Structures are given as C-alpha cells and as structure tokens.
UniProtKB/TrEMBL annotation, chain A:
Protein name: ABC-2 type transport system permease protein
The organism of origin for this protein: Streptosporangium subroseum
Pfam family, one: ABC2_membrane_2
Membrane-spanning segments: 16-37, 76-99, 125-150, 156-183, 195-219, 239-259
Superkingdom of this protein's organism: Bacteria
Keywords noted in UniProt: Membrane, Transmembrane, Transmembrane helix
Gene Ontology, cellular component aspect: plasma membrane
GO molecular function, one term: ABC-type transporter activity
Coiled coil: none
Automatic annotation (TrEMBL), chain B:
Membrane topology of the entry: Peripheral membrane protein
Main location: membrane
Protein location: Cell membrane
Keyword annotations from UniProtKB, A to Z: Antibiotic resistance, ATP-binding, Nucleotide-binding, Transport
Domain of life, source organism: Bacteria
Molecular-function GO terms, alphabetical: ATP binding; ATP hydrolysis activity
Name of this chain's protein: ABC-2 type transport system ATP-binding protein
Keyword Transport listed: yes
Gene Ontology annotations for the cellular component aspect, listed alphabetically: plasma membrane
Residues passing through the membrane, by range: none
Coiled-coil intervals, chain numbering: none
PANTHER family reported in the protein's UniProt record: ABC TRANSPORTER ATP-BINDING PROTEIN (PTHR42711), ABC TRANSPORTER ATP-BINDING PROTEIN NATA (PTHR42711:SF5)
An annotated GO BP: response to antibiotic
Amino acid sequence: MPALVSKSLRDYRRGLIGWTLGIGVFMLVYLSVYSSIVADPDTYGPAALAKFPGPLKDLMGGLDNFTSGAGYLQAVAYQMFGPLLFTMCAVTLGSQVIAQPEERGTLELTLTLPIDRRRLLLERFAALALSLLGIALITFVLVAGMASALDMGVPFVNIVAAHTGLFLLVLFFGTVTVTVSAATGRKSLSMGVAGAWAVGGYVVETLGRDVAAISWLRWLSPFHYYLDGRPIYQGFPTGGYLVLAGATIVLLLTAMLAFDRRDVGV
Amino acid sequence: MTAVVETEGLTKFYGKRRGLEDLNLVIHPGEVFGYLGPNGSGKTTTIRLLLDVIRPTSGRVTVLGTDPRDASVRSRIGYLPGELFLEGRERARDYLAFLGAVRGGVPRTRIEGLAERLEADLSAPMGKLSKGNRQKVGLIQAFMHEPELLILDEPTGGLDPLVQQEFLTMVREVRASGRTVLMSSHVLAEVEHVSDRVGIVRAGRLVAVEDISALREKAVRRVEFHFDAPVPREAFENLAGVRDLRVEGAAVSCTIDGRPDALIKAAARFTVVHMVSAEPDLEEIFLTYYSDEEARHARAGVEESA
C-alpha cells in the first residue's frame, strides 16, 4: 500500500472507528426489534399504516410494508436512517481528505513531499474509499446476520444489492465533499454542498414519486439511482448503480484537475 | 555552476493584493542565504512559490535546475514551514518515518541522531507537542534526508538559545558539505551569524541583496553612554556616523551607522560609567538606507490605487 494511503487511513482512524460503532449499534438495535414489530400487525401492519398519506410514508423511509422482512429492512437500514447516518459519516470523512488538513495547516508539509498533486488527492481519496468500504462490509455482515437470525426471509443477494447501492450512494456524497474541498479548500462549504444535495436529493426522490411538480428533478438526485430500482425487493438495479459509479468517477477526475490548478492554503 | 534557485520577474498577486512583485533572485550552490523582511513582506510567499504550494501570477522560477511543478525535485529539498502544524495521536517518530519513506527512505539512526542533538522528544503524540518540540520535529524532518537545498521559514522561532546554537551548527555543516540553505527571518540577528548573503524584502519587493559583511557596516545601532558628570553637547556633535543625538545631563544617546570609532573616541574623553549598545535593528536599516526606495514604492502604491 502506498505510504500516503496508509498514512491517510491513520489520519481518518479516529472518525472511522466512531462511525463504524455508531452505525453498527444503530443497525443492531433497530433490527433487533423486528420480532416485536412483526408480532404486532395491528399497530404496524399495512392496514394500520394505510391512514398515513403515501408521500409521507415515503419520506419517512417507505413504510409501505413494515411487517415484512424486506419492508422493514428497507425502512430502517436502506431508505432513511441507514443512508442518513452513513452519508453524514462519508461527508465528515470526505472533509478530512483535503479541506480540514488544509484549513488546519497540516496539508502544507504533505504538499511539499515528492508526490504530485493529482496523486496526492487520489491516494487520500483511496483511503477514504477504503474506509467507507470497511464500514459497508462490517454493517453488511451485521444486517445479513440479523436478517438470517430473525428469519426476515429476504434473499441474500438482495441484501448484497441494497448494501452495494448504499455504499455507492455514500461514496458519491463523500466524493462531492472531496471535489468541493479540492476546488475551494473550504471545509464548511464542501460539507454544506454535499449535505444540501443529500437532503434535497432524498426529499425530491421520495416525495417526487407522488408529487408531479418536483418529479422531473429526480434525475438530479443520487437517491433516485439507488432507490428507484428497489434493490431489496428486486436485486441489483445495474443501470442506476453504473450512473452513481460513473458520476463518482467524473467528480473524482474533476477534483484532481481542480486541486492541481490552485494555490493551497491561502 | 548552475544556480540552486533562480527567479525571473517572479510575481504573485492574491486577487488584487500584492504578495510578491518582480523578484529576480539567484542563490548559488553552497551558500547560506538569509531572506529578511518584516512579517507580511513576501518571504513566505516566495518560499511557497519555490515549493509549488502556490503558483506564480507571472514570471519564472527554477529550483535545482527544474520547474518546481515537477514533484520529484521535492525529494531533494528539505522544508520547514513558517508555521508548522502537527496534530493527531500519531507519535512524532512515526510521522517522521512516514515522511522519510515518501522521500525515498531515511535511516532510523539518522532521525534518532538528530533528535538527540536537538533534544527532541519523539515519543509524544504530535497533537501534544510543545511549541519548542514541534519546531524541533520540523527541523528534523527538514534535515533528515540530507537534501541539496534546505528552505527554512523562520527556523528559530520557539527554540531555546542552546538549541538555536545547535541548529546554527547544523546549518554550517550543511554549508560545509557543499549544500545550500535559504532561511528567512524578520530578525537580522537570527541569520547574520550563518548567512553569506542576505536579501531584504519589503512590501512584496526585494529591495536589496547584500553581502552580510557589507550589511553589518551599514547597520544602525542605538548607543547610550552614561558618564559620571554632565557632558557638553558640543563634544558629540558632528561626529562621523552619529545621528539622532540626545544629550541629557550625564547621559548621551544616539544611533550610529557603520563604524563606532569616532563616537568611542569622543566618549573616551570623559569617565564612562555605563554603556548600552543594542543589536542593530533590521527595521532601522530599512528606515535609514532604504527609505528612498520605500518612498518611491509608497508613491507607486498610491498611483496604483488611484
């Protein structure tokens, strides 16, 4: 592993451990109450939830079939809370790639090493991607393990598909943070752009299914390419995932070019 | 002999603010070049341009014969930033090992040897280093790969006097081995004992490059004599090199340019009880010898903004 990748991983380590624990514990706690939800269809079943309007249910995480294994996983792990927490994690870690060390002044010495700018950004990004992959793998083992232990009846491959999508989604938002940082060097701006895009994208994608006025905006929402194919029910939505991965690569290339052109730390 | 650092018309503007304008500078192999100027005068801007941290607005710069944008040249440079920021729980020793590895490998013994010379503590987490220790870690990383060119931005800040002496010895060793040092400071006293030449930068412009011995001749010193009885003013008037003369009873104070000989001989006629001679103040060199230069630029500045 290149020295800068392992060094960057050490830089991110603290946040990485915290977020892994946080997301892991959240999944564990919420998934473990599945049995009691299934046991109480009068409160949580489709009939009981029918009184809420569709868009609201979508916005709250897609409560359409809360008492089925797939519906529960979708609502808790893959539509709202999972992506919410994991995106916050990706954006926070993403701000540590360039903007945070630049604002704190620790980037200057790194920049004067015999590593050219593009490689520097690429290697620090690689450490971010590896970090997010690590969290994704750990939480995947957790979710898949719980789903099987609690007899949720969701095909394994669909959990793989949903988790892959979750990883691609947060990698995209992490990359947005990196790109804005690479171009401007400003931490709060980069986190703000990524955060606003995430929240806006989520609202547009979930409400946009029923509200025609904003549904045309859905193509701008990264969530669209992740949720629209309903991976937990239908497996890999290959096209959507390719869009997410492609957009991430385009952003990364933009980040490399932007970072290579500008003054750092002024 | 090719120059180690060569700039031609090197200019950097931050938006409309001038960082550095039209710098023409040549630093030769094997010399210690002191780069002097008050804070904000353009020293750090110059250094960052040499290291490709920032890019010139116009002009040309070569370092060790190549464009600084070529990253590989940086393994032959040792750099100490003016403000070194280190953070995290990583130990200083591990950070130095990382920097060494990226620069092509540095023997562990050399790092430990430098740490011993500077009495640096490398076992502490970087975020908890004292200011002095942080500066020592910065010096170790700049010297440890035995670079052909050392660029040191305000190197002695935060070091106690004994360590400063050790640092100056290290600089002399670098020169003795034929390598080159560029060190900046806002205090002449910090660089005058090791520098061969000094460049003086003021408001973004290089106003003079001098041999250190020539500069010392020009240096202005504040001198005070206290006598055992009041002295007549006439005895000190119109002496060579004496300015700003004040005679108050038994006390005489003035500034002198160059040699203090005439003043000393005048004072020797009375009984001297006490004498104070301050180190030459760089600021006063500016005010006296470069005041014309400055006034010209000040006018140019007014015209620019008008």
